[in-house]
Every structure is written in structure tokens, then in C-alpha cells.
């Protein structure tokens, strides 16, 4: 038994195949405006934005242990920043989306300092309180339509692109780009030194702390970065919708409940989970949405059953069976055997 | 005088919030479970009250004798059938399961009772009032406050002077040793949830008489109860009454300044207290 009998590698054949397939899929998706219909593109755009939200929530809950039920705070904040900066500040919509991210990060700093005092489940409800504070505050701003909200003026929509087809394609590409950016950023972050610290905290907070990891700081960074991205996604969501109101912008069902179900069903604490969960969620929604409230009850039941019977979600089941990892994060030690001379 | 009035009315409103909070505090104290569906269970109790009063013609206050045992039964079944499976070191399962439960209850209520706002008709009780030193006090808010004090006193007495309370404290301190001493913790947890939902039933009926309700308001009630718990300090039942009163007064004063500020003022009071006293005013157990 020598060290030389073992090899340590990060990648695997499955991961390389997956990377190639993902690249092909991405190219096909970029070309969607030439082959997909308008309704399909709208649906896919929405899917990409949900995928981004789910990936971000998963980074917080699955890795940093920050279970938030108040991410709608940043979705709504980002949406409102898009409207405020374009309508009142005269910014170009694309610049406003970027600015929404920066402002989202800035506002999340005092919020984090305050609600990080709450632990576990109380933290979760604390985030909800923050989202309510945001909702009630934006409902007071008459320049943005108060409680009834406002629509994005035509001139601003047209400044994005003059033709409707081009506008729709641009909106789709922005959503696709956002999803690709978020998934890649989370993947690279988890492979970095900070990501390793985060994984250590996920596995055992006490042990991680005793190894010198600054737990508060690591979680704080994750919270602020997630908030910034979530605000940008929020701006994109309401750029697609073209209309905003406090109840729609800060809806706990739309921006948190669905996102949580996506992550839980797909597999929490993995990068693949939110992707699978988003596909399952949209498949369920497209087939069962006509049932209305029954559909939501079914979704709740499925989430509870998955949480109790298969807490690692669909991807967890796949992985326990086939030892697959499409986004290689950890290192694997393989026994090469005697055939190789040292 | 108007400000004094706002403070008095807010104090009485605090009684209702303390009732929202008492169930939440009890469940957390015994099994460290934070029930996200708590607000929806309050609304469920209000709807059960509606069904009982319309079916039998009973006065809502009398319907308590049916709704409280019904909710207690639901609580016991829920704990033994579902929530006991989620307990452990990981905080995620209880949180997500109760979150799923919240969505199920909310949409189940929508399915059965539709989204129309409802109210429990309590006749003359709704508007009756007495004048004390120039301030008109509603009989219903006074009654609510009195019930809140009685319920918290009752819970406190149960906790510290009965065999059941001793069992609650034992499983709260150390589940494994309590189990070794012959307590069945699954059963004890079931009883704790039954007691908590019994309190929730009273809160739901009083809520239904006071204001109109619809299936979507559960989240807001959960937040009020939660804020009262945190302001008062975790695990302190009398603290939840103080927390409820502070929240109620903040809301009525906020509403006095601008009607749109009512709920927001309550949230801000909560955040200020969280910033100044992170463990609440009278903490008994650390979170």
C-alpha cells in the first residue's frame, strides 16, 4: 500500500461528458430565437430566471446553512430598483439592472448585521419580516405607484430595442445569460478556497470554527453576494413582466415557496439539484397548472414527502445509485492497483 | 388623550398577539420546533369556528368548546404522524416540512372556503364598550386581553405544577434521559402540540370575531406571533405577553401617525429591539 497506488483527481469521465453536452445545449439555447416560438421563449426565459433563484437559494440554504424564507425581499427590491432607476433616474434598463445588483448588495449589509443575530428557524422568519418591511415601505412610495404599483413606460421599453422580436430575443438572452452566469459563479465559488470553507461549515460548523474558519464572515459574504445576484434577477423578472406592484414583487409564494420546492425536490446542497428541480417544477406546472389550488397542494405534498423520504432529493437518489457528479466539486481518491510500477 | 387612547387600545391588541405567540413559544420551548404553519393553523381555527357557528347557530365564543378539542386533536395527529419524523439536529426538515404544510393548509382553505373574506358574527359583543376615564374600551378587546392572561397563567401553571409540565420540561432539557426515565417523548411532543393548537384555536376564534379573515392572512399572523416571542425573549411565556403588548402599541401608534404605517411600525419596533437586545427583553433559553 503505497501512496503511489492511489491517484487523486477532481474531474471524471461523466463530468467531462456533461460539460461537453452542457456546452452543446448552451449553444442550442443561445440560438433559440431562430428556432423557438414566442411562447416557448417566454417560458424558457422564466425557467432560466427560476433556475437562477433556485441556485442562489441553494447556495445559502444548502451550503451556508442560511435558510431564508425572505428572498422575495431582494427579488422585489431589484424589480423596484429597475423601475425607479429607469423612470425616475433616467438610466438605460441594462445599466439599471447592474445598478440594482450593487444596491441589493449595499442594502443587504445592514440587513445581515441585524438578522444574523437570529439563529436557525428564527433567522428564517426574520428574513420574512425584512421582506414585509420592504413590501410595506415600497407601498408607501407614491412616485412608484404606491400600493397599486406601476407599469414600465413604453419609451423605456423601446430604448432596449426598437423591434418587438429583437426585444423578446434580448430579454430571453438576458435570462439565459443570468442563469449561465449564476450557475458558473456558484460552481467556481464552491471550488475556491472560500467554497471549501463553506462546505466545511455545512458539514460541521463547530469543527470548521475550530480549524480557524471565520464562520460569521463566510456566511456574511454568501448572504451579500446572493442578495446582489437575487436583486439583479428580480430586475430581469420585472423587465419581462413590465409591471410591478408591492404584492407581486414581494410575493412569498412566487419567489420563495416555489424556489424552496424546486431545490428540495431536485436535491439540496448540490449544484445539479436546482437544475433538475427547475425542470421538474416546470413540467409539473405546465401539466397541472389548470388544477389551480390543487396543484399547489400537490406541490406541497411532494415537497414534504421528498424531505422526509429522500432528503437529498432526486439528484441525491441518482447519486447514491450511480456515484455521479456532473459538476466536480470534491476530489476523489482512486486505487490504481498493482499494475502500475512506482 | 388620543395618544393615551392609542396606547390603551394597542395594549389590548397585544393580548391577541400574545395568544398568537403563546402556542409558538410553547412548541419551541418543548421541542425546539419552529412552526412556519402556525399562522395558517390560526386561520384554520377561525374557519373551523365559522363552520361550527353556521352549522349549529352557536355564538362564536361558545364554539370554543368544539374548536379547541378539534384543534388539539389535529395537533396531536400532526405531531405524531408528521412532525415527529422531522425532529433532530438538522433544522432544515422541520422548517421545510412546516413550510410545505403552510402551503397545503392555505390552498386547502381556499379550495373549501374560497378567497372571500369571512367574519365570525358575535352580535352585540363586537361593538359593546365601557368608558373608563374618557377612553372607550371595547368589551371584546378587554375580554381578549383577559383570556390571554388566563391562558398564559394556565400554561405557566401546567408547566411548573403538573406531571405533564414536568414531562415537558424533562424532554426539553434532555430527550434521551427523559426517554430513559420512562417518558415516551413522541407522545409528550404530541401532547405539547395538542396544547399549543388548543391555544391557537382560542386565538383563531378571537381573531375571527375581531377582524375579517381569508386564507391568505396566515403568514402575517405568524410574523406577529414570532415578533412577540422574540421581543419578549425566547422561552418566556409572560415575556410573550409583554412582546405582544409592545407590538400592539407600536402598531396603534404607527396607525395614529399614518394609517399605512400600522403594520410597518410594528416591524420597525421589532427590528429596533432586535438591534438593541438581540435575545429579547426577558430571555430564558438561548436560541
Features:
heterodimer; A: 342 residues; mainly alpha; ABC transporter involved in vitamin B12 uptake, BtuC; two-stranded antiparallel ribbon; globular; B: 287 residues; two-stranded antiparallel sheet
Report what the structure shows.
The complex is a heterodimer of chains A (342) and B (287). Chain A is mainly alpha-helical and 342 residues long. Helices cover 73% and strands 4% of the residues of chain A. Chain A is built from 16 helices and 4 strands. A two-stranded antiparallel sheet of chain A has the order 1-4. In chain A, α3 runs antiparallel to α11. The model of chain A has no long low-confidence stretch (mean pLDDT 86). In chain B, α1 runs antiparallel to α10 and α2 packs across α8. In chain B, 53% of the residues are buried. In chain B, a hairpin with a 2-residue loop joins β1 (129-132) and β2. Chain B is built from 11 helices and 2 strands, in the order ααααββααααααα. Chain B has helices at residues 2-31, 38-56, 60-81, 92-113, 139-161, 163-173, 175-180, 185-210, 218-232, 237-257, 262-276; strands spanning 129-132, 135-138. Chain B has one domain (2-115, 137-276): Orthogonal Bundle (ABC transporter involved in vitamin B12 uptake, BtuC), CATH 1.10.3470. With 287 residues, chain B is an all-alpha fold. The radius of gyration of chain B is 19 Å and the shape is globular. In chain B, strands 1-2 form a two-stranded antiparallel ribbon. The interface between A and B is large, with 42 and 43 residues.
Amino acid at each position: 500500500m503505497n501512496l503511489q497506488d492511489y491517484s487523486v483527481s477532481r474531474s471524471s469521465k461523466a463530468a467531462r461528458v456533461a460539460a461537453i453536452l452542457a456546452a452543446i445545449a448552451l449553444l442550442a439555447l443561445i440560438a433559440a430565437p431562430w428556432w423557438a416560438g414566442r411562447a416557448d421563449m417566454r417560458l424558457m426565459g422564466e425557467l432560466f430566471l427560476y433556475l437562477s433563484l433556485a441556485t442562489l437559494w441553494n447556495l445559502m440554504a444548502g451550503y451556508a446553512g442560511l435558510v431564508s424564507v425572505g428572498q422575495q425581499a431582494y427579488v422585489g427590491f431589484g424589480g423596484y430598483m429597475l423601475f425607479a432607476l429607469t423612470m425616475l433616474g433616467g438610466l438605460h434598463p441594462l445599466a439599471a439592472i447592474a445598478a440594482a445588483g450593487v444596491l441589493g448588495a449595499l442594502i443587504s449589509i445592514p440587513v445581515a448585521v441585524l438578522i444574523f443575530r437570529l439563529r436557525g428557524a428564527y433567522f428564517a422568519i426574520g428574513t420574512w419580516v425584512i421582506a414585509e418591511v420592504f413590501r410595506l415601505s415600497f407601498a408607501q412610495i407614491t412616485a412608484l405607484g404606491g400600493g397599486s404599483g406601476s407599469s414600465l413606460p413604453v419609451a423605456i421599453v423601446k430604448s432596449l430595442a426598437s423591434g418587438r422580436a429583437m426585444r423578446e430575443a434580448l430579454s430571453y438572452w438576458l435570462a439565459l445569460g443570468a442563469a449561465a452566469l449564476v450557475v458558473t459563479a456558484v460552481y467556481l465559488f464552491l471550488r475556491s478556497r472560500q467554497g471549501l470553507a463553506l462546505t466545511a461549515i455545512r458539514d460541521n460548523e463547530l469543527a470548521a470554527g475550530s480549524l480557524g474558519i471565520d464562520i460569521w464572515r463566510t456566511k456574511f459574504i454568501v448572504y451579500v453576494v446572493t442578495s446582489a445576484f437575487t436583486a439583479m434577477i428580480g430586475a430581469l423578472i420585472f423587465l419581462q413582466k413590465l409591471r410591478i406592484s408591492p404584492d407581486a414583487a414581494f410575493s412569498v409564494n412566487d419567489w420563495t415557496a416555489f424556489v424552496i420546492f424546486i431545490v428540495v425536490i431536485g436535491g439540496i446542497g448540490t449544484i445539479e439539484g436546482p437544475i433538475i428541480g427547475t425542470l421538474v417544477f416546470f413540467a409539473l406546472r405546465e401539466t397541472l397548472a389548470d388544477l389551480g389550488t390543487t396543484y399547489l397542494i400537490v406541490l406541497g405534498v411532494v415537497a414534504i414527502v421528498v424531505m422526509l423520504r429522500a432528503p437529498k432529493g432526486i439528484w441525491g437518489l441518482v447519486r447514491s445509485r450511480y456515484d455521479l457528479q456532473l459538476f466536480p466539486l470534491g476530489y476523489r481518491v482512486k486505487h490504481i492497483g498493482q499494475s502500475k510500477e512506482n | 388623550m388620543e395618544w393615551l387612547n392609542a396606547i390603551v387600545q394597542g395594549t389590548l391588541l397585544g393580548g391577541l398577539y400574545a395568544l398568537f405567540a403563546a402556542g409558538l413559544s410553547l412548541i419551541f420551548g418543548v421541542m425546539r420546533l419552529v412552526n412556519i404553519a402556525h399562522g395558517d393553523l390560526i386561520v384554520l381555527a377561525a374557519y373551523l369556528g365559522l363552520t361550527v357557528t353556521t352549522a349549529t347557530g352557536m355564538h362564536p365564543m361558545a364554539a370554543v368548546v368544539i374548536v379547541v378539542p378539534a384543534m388539539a386533536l389535529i395537533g396531536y395527529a400532526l405531531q405524531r404522524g408528521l412532525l415527529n419524523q422531522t425532529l433532530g439536529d438538522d433544522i432544515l426538515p422541520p422548517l421545510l416540512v412546516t413550510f410545505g404544510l403552510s402551503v397545503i393548509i392555505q390552498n386547502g382553505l381556499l379550495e373549501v372556503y374560497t378567497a372571500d373574506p369571512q367574519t365570525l358574527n358575535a352580535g352585540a359583543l363586537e361593538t359593546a364598550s365601557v368608558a373608563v376615564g374618557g377612553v372607550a374600551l371595547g368589551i371584546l378587546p378587554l375580554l381578549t386581553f383577559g383570556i390571554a392572561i388566563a391562558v398564559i397563567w394556565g400554561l405557566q401553571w401546567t408547566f411548573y405544577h403538573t406531571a405533564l409540565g414536568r414531562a415537558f420540561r424533562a424532554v426539553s432539557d434532555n430527550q434521551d434521559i427523559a426517554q430513559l426515565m420512562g417518558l415516551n417523548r413522541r407522545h409528550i411532543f404530541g401532547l405539547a402540540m395538542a396544547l399549543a393548537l388548543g391555544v391557537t384555536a382560542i386565538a383563531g376564534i378571537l381573531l375571527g370575531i375581531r377582524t375579517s379573515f381569508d386564507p391568505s392572512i396566515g403568514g402575517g399572523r405568524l410574523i406577529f406571533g414570532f415578533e412577540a416571542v422574540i421581543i419578549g425573549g425566547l422561552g418566556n411565556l409572560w415575556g410573550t405577553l409583554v412582546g405582544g403588548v409592545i407590538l400592539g402599541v407600536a402598531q396603534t401608534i404607527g396607525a395614529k401617525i399614518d394609517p399605512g404605517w400600522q403594520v410597518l411600525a410594528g416591524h420597525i419596533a421589532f427590528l429596533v429591539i432586535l438591534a438593541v437586545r438581540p435575545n429579547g427583553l426577558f430571555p430564558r433559553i438561548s436560541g
